[in-house]
Amino acid sequence: MKLIVLNLPRDFSEDQLAKLFKAHGNIRGCDLVIDPATGISKGFGFVEMALDHEAEIAIKALHGSKLNKQKIRVKAAS
Questions:
Q1: DSSP 56
Q2: Nearest to residue 77, comparing CAs of 61, 50, 54, 55?
Q3: 32/46 Cα distance (integer angstroms)
Q4: Which residues on neighbouring strands pair with residue 21, listed in sequence order?
Q5: CA distances from 49 to 10, 18, 40, 43, 76 (A)
Q6: pTM for the model
Q7: Whole-angstrom Cα distance, residue 7 to residue 26?
Q8: pLDDT (tens digit, 9 = 90+) per residue, 12-57?
Q9: Using H for helix, E for strand and C for coil, what is the string for 10-54?
Q10: Beta bridge partners of 6
Q11: Dihedral, CA of residue 28, residue 24, residue 69 and residue 2, to nearest 10
Q12: What residues contact 58, with CB distance under 8 A and at least 6 apart?
């Protein structure tokens, strides 16, 4: 299941994003959306979880949690 992760800190890395989700199951991959002009994260990204039930666990665990005083949002990507 592909998830979208919103409101990430701008200095968050893909490795940090992967580590955050690996705590809740196997991931197939993750991508931060980067501004091509600045090379800085736009504050959101995508994570592909290997199993749907692990994705649901990750959503429940991480949606509304705080990273660097910012509440992140996690939901299924459409």
A1: H
A2: 55
A3: 6
A4: none
A5: 22, 10, 24, 20, 10
A6: 0.92
A7: 22
A8: 999 999 999 999 999 999 999 999 999 999 999 999 999 999 999 9
A9: CCCCHHHHHHHHHCCCCEEEEEEEECCCCCCEEEEEEEEECCHHH
A10: 44, 73
A11: 40
A12: 3, 21, 24, 25, 47, 49, 74
Alpha carbon distances (Å) from 20 to 35, 36, 37, 43, 67: 22, 24, 27, 15, 10
Provide the token pair at 23: 């705590």
How far apart are the C-alpha atoms of 41 and 67, rounded to whole Å?
15
Q: How many CB atoms lie within 10 A of CB 9?
A: 14
Residue with tokens 């809740």: 24
Query: How many residues are listed for the chain in this entry?
Result: 78
